[in-house]
Write a structure and sequence with these properties.
This protein is mainly β. Helix content is 0%, strand content 52%.
Length: 192
């Protein structure tokens, strides 16, 4: 995908997911992920365990962070997290109290973390969830991606051509630099 704002990325073959990053000299670094709004949803649409990855920017020159782990939704408005965080090179367990969530009929999702709030949406079928935050005043800007945990994935599952969008913020006062690539992954026994 290319557009008049000098963004590049990729789109899924079925058109349900697209990703973009700005690549023009002087543009503000960022990441845009689009999920097609389709289907009818309820809180029960989010049920089970999801892989979670996130990146965000905190205060100060060393405030960049990433988070990873599991979010487990109960199908009736409750979610529990088990997460770790890398904040400027220091890795630790990130304690998150149990939270609540709501899913609107159009697939819009809101997670209430007490002092913080995340908002976003999900794909029809519930396999992918994208959230941004903080939607609360004074919270840290962040981008969350959740993928439903597979019960049958193997090393061979990750095989073939993929669009890759990468955003990294060095542990110094540098601007995050987006990178866009097309990669082909070849499965091996060790999953690399």
């Amino acid at each position: 995908i290319a557009n008049e704002r000098a963004s590049l990325g990729g789109i899924a073959a079925d058109g349900r997911v697209a990703c973009l990053v700005p690549v023009a000299e002087g543009s503000t670094p960022g990441l845009t992920l689009l999920l097609r709004r389709y289907g009818t949803f309820t809180n029960a649409s989010l049920d089970g365990a999801y892989h979670l990855v996130a990146c965000g920017s905190g205060s100060g020159i060393h405030g960049g962070w990433t988070r990873w782990g599991t979010a487990t939704f109960n199908g009736s408005g409750g979610v529990a997290f088990s997460l770790s965080e890398n904040r400027s090179g220091q890795v630790f367990s990130w304690p998150v109290p149990d939270a609540s969530y709501t899913v609107a009929q159009d697939g819009a999702v809101q997670i209430d973390l007490g002092a913080d709030e995340l908002r976003g949406g999900m794909l029809d079928g519930g396999e992918l969830l994208v959230l941004g935050g903080s939607a609360s005043w004074g919270g840290e800007p962040a981008f969350y991606v959740l993928i439903r945990k597979s019960t049958s994935a193997t090393a061979a599952t990750l095989n073939g051509p993929y669009h890759l969008v990468d955003l990294a913020r060095p542990a110094a006062p540098f601007t995050p630099q987006p990178t866009v690539h097309c990669v082909t992954l070849n499965a091996s026994a060790d999953g690399v």
